[in-house]
Amino acid sequence: MVGLHSVKATTALKLHNGVLRAKKPTRSTPNGYKASILLEELKEAYGLQYTSQGINIGQNIQKEPWFTAINPNGRIPAIVDHDHGDLAVFEGNAILSYLSRRYDTERLFSFAPDDDDYTRAESWIGWQHGGLGPMQGQANHFVRAAKEKIAYGMQRYVGETERLYGILDARLRDRDFVVGPGRGKYSIADIALLGWVNAVRGTTISIDQFPSIKAWLARCWERPAVQRGFQVPSAPASSALTPQVGEAAEQAKQLKQLVDEAKKQYGYVYSSP
Prior knowledge:
- The structure is a single chain.
- The radius of gyration is 19 Å and the shape is globular.
- The model is unreliable at about 1-25 (pLDDT under 50).
- The chain is about 50% helix and about 10% strand.
- It is α+β, with helices and mostly antiparallel strands.
- The protein is built from 9 helices and 8 strands.
- It folds into 2 domains: about 30-105, 3-Layer(aba) Sandwich (Glutaredoxin); about 115-265, Glutathione S-transferase Yfyf (Class Pi), Chain A, domain 2.
- It has a 4-stranded mixed sheet with strand order 1-5-2-6, covered by helices on one side.
- It has helices at about 30-45, 65-70, 90-105, 115-145, 150-170, 190-200, 210-220, 225-230, 245-265; strands at about 1-5, 10, 15, 20, 20-25, 55, 80, 85-90.
- InterPro entries: Glutathione-S-Trfase_C-like (IPR010987), Glutathione-S-Trfase_C_sf (IPR036282), Glutathione_S-Trfase (IPR040079), Glutathione_S-Trfase_N (IPR004045), GST_C (IPR004046), Thioredoxin-like_sf (IPR036249).
């Protein structure tokens, strides 16, 4: 059984007698949701159960020796498969690859290695891992977390995030999902992106700017396993699909004004790709 709990958690994975048993270190973050959403999909499709062990990353528990033995980088999420030689897997996208390769036996959320869509999925997952995630994370940091509001940093990273969203929006313009034949098949290529897209407003970018992405996100949210996965270890503070109200809306308005002023100062003009 695999397990995840607590607002700030980690998970390790174990499969025993047909039951997926794991502890999975994670938190309510875009990367953490990758593992929990796929685990929920596997649970629904194959009856695999999971449990979780929570850690408080605010107390730097992820830096303790027991955890760095699982992930030397001291970050979440990570899993340990006790039925496969206690194999530790860290980095969200590596976890998606491992879980789907080992437990998605009917290729419901993935593709066979000899299928060209396997390579296409790898490409989009790599695009998220090396581009969208880091750029959006830095945008969120400079806009919201940094004590000093640095105009160049804000416009640089928000602008690059915007450019990348333009690429994804173009990809989804005539597709339901990122990869797959015809209009696409829901897969780990989508799961890799879900947590990040759901949190895009943290950068002051409105998902309304990208209608194809907005429709895709709403489509994915209709899946019960996605809804459950977004509850593990706790629900996100908000969703790109729901309007902000009250104090949160006012703060978002003020931050958007700062970003717009920074863009103007440095002559930023949206362009994608």
